[in-house]
Design brief:
The protein is an alpha/beta fold. The protein is built from four helices and six strands. The strands form two sheets. Strands 2-4-5-6 form a four-stranded mixed β-sheet, with helices on one face. It has a two-stranded parallel sheet with strand order 1-3.
Amino acid sequence: MKTIRPLIAMLWFAFLASCNTPPPEQRFPEVSYKHLAPIRLDVKTIEIFSTYASTFAPPQVEHLFPLAPSAAAERWAKERLVATGKEGRARFIVRDASVVQQRLPKSGGITGLITTEQTDRYVAELGVELIVHDDLGQREGKVAARAQLSRTVSEDITLNGLEQVWFEMAEALMKDLNAQLEAGVASYLKPFLK
């Protein structure tokens, strides 16, 4: 009897521990832009930075994303923009990379009890500029791009499901931004392409 009690206690604690085990951490594919053709600019240097500052407090949630929009935009610039000239500089600036959570109203009464509703909307904006300067700092060319989208999620979404939505939002923002930047560079920075 003495040997059974510790065994029962261990099994009981193991059972309790398994009840509180968080879901396994979700792994997302690495996002890269190296498969896309490089954008060769006739400048000596390329500066990449962000002027956007998250509050890291509700309703801002971009810092919780598995792929933060600002980091994705900066990675795009690092992997696609190539300096090939002997003078001048290009500046890639992330101006906005916000994602705001908006609580949606929930139905009351019996309808609210028996219906799975959309309870949150996430509104994302990603804005960047690519500016070419001469050696004296005078602006010679500029392209701006802005991507926006929103998604709603239901009240029964899991943490893994929410992170998947956020990851897909960041990918969609970057797909839109990439298309805008490619078109803008071809139209407005043509003299600086090599």
